[in-house]
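Duplicate of #3305? Posting structure anyway:
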């Protein structure tokens, strides 16, 4: 069905989330909706799916105006939505999760005809290669399969318009490819699809048309056949952004970090790091790529002193550190940008100034003879805010009140406020907008050029390819390959990330 949203406006207290947004999508086409965090994408789709009422504006389906008072009305009109955060009941099996609540499952007495429901689910699953076991319990399914159950649920309700809100956020590169195939076959069968993302490659790959939202408005439209990543990024951010981090060739110096035959157990005492050898030199960025959960977290924890290895050696600047704690490691001049800034990086109910001196408040220049020098603290924090372009009303604002990008800038500003010889950055740009990503990458390159050794652990291939002078791929606790940045591609990295051996003719 053809979908048209006309002049949709939606205001929340203090925020104009949607400002006269007009978009349209034709039957059987994929409309890619691109925009940074907070651009208004989810709000617009919540209006389409009847969760929110617009303040003004109109919805047309096949040229007929529709108003949805609630989600049921939207579903009846053929709109299905796969939310950013899934809403399946964990203890249900697939048949129950998909069919319950859909009226077609009831006979005259209102009983649930499981056999009939199961049959239709199997048919749909086969037709669109969703590969879902109808009898599996939801809680036993990996997240990628749960997402396909959500798609099944929409199809089961005969959705002709399917909205996918940031579907790839929870998928591996391979699962994302599978999702593209599903989307293409749905579109070929006449389903109109709205595919929401903040990733440039994805809209270029899967969309027939692209609309870009920025700050609640349509910033522009683009044709994926001719649009470039650069144009789309500029449209998203509203200024020229550097997608490719400007960086010259690395000038590697002495070995700063040396890891030999490292074995580290995870919280369940299973061996998560399984014999890693790695050297990182001053003046180079080594990116550690891999699908989440292949030992990267435990590797970082071991290097930064948060987790004691089972065996093996870690040397930083020539000192053996594998038995050291985090403070000792940090005192060697090791900056740690943690994976979970909400948990390890910042204390939300403390101010920016307080967070700024979290690790160093007991040292000069912040303290002398155990007395905190507030004036210096405030001066330095204010300087950090300025240098790192942290958007905040003041240094007395609580860290928890900042946007994700600005929180991450506080962490990076603090970590780089003292001289460092080694930087360990774990998922340093996860969840950030393009502008903040650019900013953080530039700062990491700056540290490299000032002579630090840099390790960036990332599941994002774009990030790994943008910043890595060398790229090490981790799989099942081992480093299965190291490529020069110039030799790395989506293809060879993707293969290594899936556990294939690259370059030995065995990759399939
Ligand atoms: N239920 C809500 N109440 C108040 N503000 C909201 C609500 N939902 C979204 N917003 C605000 O509206 C803006 C757009 O958010 P959203 O539509 O979620 O953006 P996107 O999906 O593009 O990241 C943001 O500033 C967000 O904080
Ligand atoms: Mg959203």
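Output from current build:
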């Amino acid at each position: 069905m053809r979908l048209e949203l006309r002049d949709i406006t939606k205001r929340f207290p203090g925020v104009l989330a949607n400002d006269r947004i007009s978009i349209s999508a034709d039957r059987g086409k994929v409309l890619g909706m691109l925009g940074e965090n907070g651009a208004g994408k989810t709000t617009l789709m919540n209006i389409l799916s009847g969760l929110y009422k617009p303040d003004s504006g109109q919805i047309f389906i096949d040229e007929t105006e529709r108003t949805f008072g609630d989600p049921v009305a939207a579903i009846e009109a053929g709109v299905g939505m796969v939310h950013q955060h899934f809403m399946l009941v964990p203890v249900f099996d697939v048949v129950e999760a998909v069919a319950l609540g859909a009226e077609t499952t009831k006979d005259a007495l209102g009983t649930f005809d499981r056999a009939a429901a199961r049959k239709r689910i199997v048919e749909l699953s086969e037709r669109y290669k969703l590969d879902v076991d109808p009898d599996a319990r939801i809680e036993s399914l990996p997240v990628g399969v749960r997402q396909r159950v959500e798609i099944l649920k929409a199809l089961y309700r005969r959705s002709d318009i399917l909205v996918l809100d940031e579907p790839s956020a929870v998928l591996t590169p391979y699962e994302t490819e599978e999702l593209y195939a599903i989307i293409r076959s749905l579109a070929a069968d006449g389903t109109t699809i709205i595919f929401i993302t903040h990733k440039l490659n994805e809209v270029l790959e899967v969309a027939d048309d692209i609309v870009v939202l920025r700050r609640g408005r349509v910033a522009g439209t683009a044709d994926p056949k001719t649009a470039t990543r650069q144009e789309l990024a500029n449209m998203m951010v509203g200024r020229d952004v550097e997608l490719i981090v400007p960086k010259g060739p690395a000038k590697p110096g002495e070995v700063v970090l040396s890891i030999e035959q490292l074995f580290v157990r995870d919280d369940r005492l299973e061996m998560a790091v399984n014999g890693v050898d790695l050297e990182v030199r001053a003046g180079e960025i080594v990116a550690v790529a891999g699908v989440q959960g292949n030992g990267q977290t435990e590797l970082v924890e071991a290097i930064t002193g948060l987790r004691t290895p089972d065996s093996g050696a870690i040397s930083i600047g020539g000192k053996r550190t594998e038995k050291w704690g985090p403070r000792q490691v940090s005192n060697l001049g090791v900056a740690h940008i943690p994976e979970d800034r909400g948990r390890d990086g910042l204390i939300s109910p403390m101010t920016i100034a307080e967070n700024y001196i979290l690790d160093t408040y007991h040292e000069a220049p912040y303290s002398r003879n155990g007395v905190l020098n507030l004036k210096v603290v405030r001066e330095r924090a204010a300087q950090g805010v300025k240098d790192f372009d942290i958007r905040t009303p003041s240094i007395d604002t609580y860290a928890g009140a900042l946007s994700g990008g600005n929180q991450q800038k506080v962490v990076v500003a603090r970590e780089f406020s003292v001289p460092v010889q080694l930087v360990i950055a774990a998922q340093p740009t996860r969840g950030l907008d393009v502008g903040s990503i650019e900013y953080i990458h530039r700062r990491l390159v700056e540290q490299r050029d000032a002579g630090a050794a840099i390790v960036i652990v990332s599941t994002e291939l774009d990030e790994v390819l943008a910043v890595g002078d060398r790229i090490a791929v981790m799989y099942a606790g081992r480093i299965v390959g190291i490529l020069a940045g110039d030799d790395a591609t989506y293809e060879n990295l993707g293969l290594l990330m899936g556990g294939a051996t690259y370059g030995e003719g065995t990759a399939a």
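Confirmed duplicate; merging threads. The chain has three domains: 3-237, 245-333+419-508, 342-418. The longest helix spans residues 173-188.
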